[in-house]
Amino acid sequence: MGARLTPIDLAMVGAYALFLLYLGYRLSHVARGSTADYLVMGRRLTLPSFVATLVTTWYGGVLGVGEFTFRFGISNWIVFGVPYYIGALLFAFFMARRAHRTKFYTVPDLLNHAYGRPAALAGAVVVQFLNSPAPYVLMLAVLLQLLFGWGFLPALGVGTFFSVVYSLRGGFPSVVVADRVQFVLMFAGFLVALPFLAMTHGGLSFLQANVPAAHFVWHGGNNLQYVFVWYLIALQTLVEPTFYQRAFAAKDEATAQRGVLISIGFWMLFDFLTTFTGLYARALMPDLADPVAAFPRLAAEFLPPVMRGLFFLGLLATIMSTVDGYTFIGGVNFGRDLIWRWRREPDEENVNRYSQIGFVVTALLAFGLAFWFRSAVDLWHHVGSIGVPALLIPLILVHAPRWRVGSAWATASMVAGGGVALGWLLPSLVAAGGSYPFGVEPIYVGLAASASVWAMGLLAAKKVRNQAGPSVI
User: Confidence band (pLDDT; 50, 70, 90) for 5?
Assistant: First the structure.
């Protein structure tokens, strides 16, 4: 069953889809231009556009937020909000200006500069999965199912198609133009819906009387290890290609840093809107069988026409802005950091073409992962638990030459961090009801493995220096 959209609601959704198609046509010439224009908008990204594209791209899990709030209340803010604010603050103060200063294009460029080609290629493999749009393609498919009553596979196919249709040829400029519009839509939908629900049904006292008491407890009934692991996964912000790529594209260092700081304020506002809207969903629909549908069902049942259409547009824009941003990162990573770097081509003449191939590969990979897992929260957890241990130490030490290790050790540290975490995760995936060895989360053992190899690399370097003895001038 669809969401009972009125003709005007459908017209709003249709206009949004046509806008995206037009954007792909209008900016198709960018793919024929320079690599700098296609990948980083010629490094001309202004502060308003920086904020719009970062805020929208880094907040695509809106249905997952609705699901988590429906189940656990305000702990959504503690689990999916606060740790990411902390990560973004760390990036703003310690990474943003330095990243812009390098004038690179991608995260593997940083790894290549600091540790060499093998580490860059290993990092590119990690990035390909870490930045997969799979969780967001999945949410887009779920939303399309709820909107139009489609089956899962057709909805997933349409969502995957729209993940590449306008950014494949238009590159980063098309992502930025789309995100400026999507920024307005994502906030407009919730800024209209939340006050309407409060005026119609009552404010905080209504929520407190109609949701479980644990929904107003900071942990929401979850154990401390579960909450804390999300703080470690949020360190993904420090290795997140979305942040680096926008810092590379900023017009100057100040824009890169201020843009992240301003974005944190908008994320805090949006978390307030989504968390309390999710509480209304729990209060008004306590028997909802599928919490991932909390926001769409809330709109379908309790919002009037036009407002309902605007709210659905906000959901679509929130998800789609992350789908296009992550598909872009994945496409460029596959085309430039895997194909082009592997082939050792002397110039960047073919990078744009390779990246377009990468867009298609990224979309197909996202389709497969979304079909296999069927849970956005699981995808976030699993991918973050593997990607963060692999990249965290090498990337945060890129700008600290004293603590770097050689190429072989850096590559081994990434392989050990990601590989051990993956091995630790597998028992919970291959067997129904499987659990982690000793009940320990994979990210912990992955980080321990990466740090251990890195420490061995530092000791080996120190031993070589000691054997060489003092230099003679």
Answer: confident
**What average pLDDT does the chain have?**
89
Which pTM value belongs to this model? 0.89
Largest CA distance in the chain: 83
Distances (CA, A) of 114 to 111, 245, 339, 395: 5, 17, 20, 9
